[in-house]
Specification:
Length: about 190
């Protein structure tokens, strides 16, 4: 029973941290501020997480599990590599739109004054996204959906940078500029 409550409390802490990250111009997120928002002591936070970096690792783990779980669903449900790529782009942008606080982690904003290993982990995450996009494009190449001369490495990099740019603009606009604005036309350009 205690581990169930402990798991619930950990989830509450991570949800509040993500909620606090939705305010990019708000106060710096400290464990004291987080504890105050949760109406618990800082010591209560440290019963669940050894450090603030560990809390951010919890958010990153949630992001990784969510995104790569969805990549797997897309690759298993779609035979067409181009449709896989299209759905992957839409999924990445929709994830950011639905998880504003996580978007600040995705773009590194929330990690600026935190342990540098967190940014390293996010860099690895982005490398994995690019590798997943390359796989979609390899599938498209194998099915003759793209010309045999297509440079899938360059195309996957372009797509990743497009997504990163959309995430940045969304966060920097104070969540006003939707990452999926004009998306159909732009995906058509990237995948044609």
């Amino acid at each position: 029973m205690a581990s169930s409550k402990s798991g619930e409390r950990k989830t509450q802490i991570l949800q509040m941290l993500a909620e606090m990250l939705e305010h990019p111009k708000g106060e710096r997120i400290t464990t004291a501020a987080l504890a105050a928002r949760l109406q618990v002591s800082e010591a209560a936070l440290y019963r669940h997480f050894a450090s603030k970096a560990q809390m951010f690792e919890g958010l990153i783990e949630f992001i990784e599990n969510s995104v790569f779980g969805l990549f797997n669903v897309i690759s298993e449900s779609e035979a067409s590599g181009l449709i896989q790529a299209r759905k992957a782009i839409l999924m990445l942008l929709t994830f950011a739109e639905r998880n504003k606080g996580m978007t600040r982690v995705l773009i590194g904003d929330a990690l600026v004054s935190e342990d540098e290993r967190l940014q390293g982990r996010m860099n690895q995450f982005l490398d994995r996204i690019e590798a997943s996009l390359r796989q979609c494009l390899r599938n498209a190449l194998a099915a003759n959906e793209l010309p045999a001369t297509d440079d899938i490495h360059a195309r996957a990099s372009l797509i990743l940078h497009f997504v990163l740019g959309r995430w940045h603009r969304y966060a920097k606009s104070g969540w006003k500029r939707s990452p999926s604005e004009h998306l159909d036309v732009q995906i058509q350009i990237m995948l044609s």
